[in-house]
Amino acid sequence: MLLHKKKRDTSKYLFSNKDLVRLYVPLIIEQMLAMLVGLADSIMVSSVGESAVSGVSLVDSCFQLIINLFAALATGGAVYQCTDYSGLFCTGSWRYHYLYPVSWTEE
User: Which residues contact 56 (CB under 8 A, 6 or more apart)?
Assistant: First the structure.
């Protein structure tokens, strides 16, 4: 007995799979290049000694953490600012009333 899966209705999706792949590929390439820079740093100091390699690896890990932290803060800040500006989630905030002083709904 074969069970047939129902096909999902993808017409309501915001992005198609092809669009998502177009978004993911540059992110993957960026992460690969960041790992390649760390690897190149380790290879350059490998002739000096083990402590130098571990020090460079530690600093590289810290830099990656800081870069990812700032990227997350920038992304979150952009999303918050866009939703606050458009009034999607913060209709009770002072910014919403400052940006939209006139009520567009009929009373």
Answer: 41, 42, 45
